[in-house]
Amino acid sequence: MKTITLCLLLLNFSCSKEYYDYHGEKILIYKKIDHSTYLKGKGIDLSNNGLTKLPKEIEKMKNLLFINLRNNSLHSINSLLSLKNIRVLILDENPLGQIPPSIDSLTDLEVLSVRACHLSTLPSSLFRLKNLKTIVLGGNQIPDHLIQELKEQLPQCKVIVNVD
Length: 164
Fold this sequence. Notes:
- The protein has helices at residues 35-38, 144-153; strands at 3-5, 16-22, 25-31, 43-45, 66-68, 88-90, 111-113, 134-136, 158-160.
- It has 164 residues and is mainly beta.
- The strands form two sheets. A six-stranded parallel sheet has the order 4-5-6-7-8-9, with helices on one face.
- The protein is globular and about 40 Å long.
- The two termini are 18 Å apart.
């Protein structure tokens, strides 16, 4: 099993680390980063916090490459769409209902995980994310024809639908 380090290059501070098994790859995520230090960093883990909306401070974090918002109560991620450097966005288990139409503003996005987010469609803007390498869509009600179209439009992207 190879290890992928996400939440890369946190600058000159210590924090705890956790490893997650993500579809056969071991992913390193840095956790427990306080406000004064995460502004210096490249990644943040706000999973399992019961968030109903994103903290306003997140909009100021222009250097973020990795955001984990898994298992919160978010209905919208619009404030994240101004963070142009995001490469990994984990939104699993949030009642989003939809991926915002302006998702294509995240032109550097490489990994998008929206497992179990109450999705039943995909915005056409998603098909314009030419840097997207992996998208996790399991646990949603997305029609097969949209999954197939995504695979055709983004052949470089690994589309993961069946998640244990």
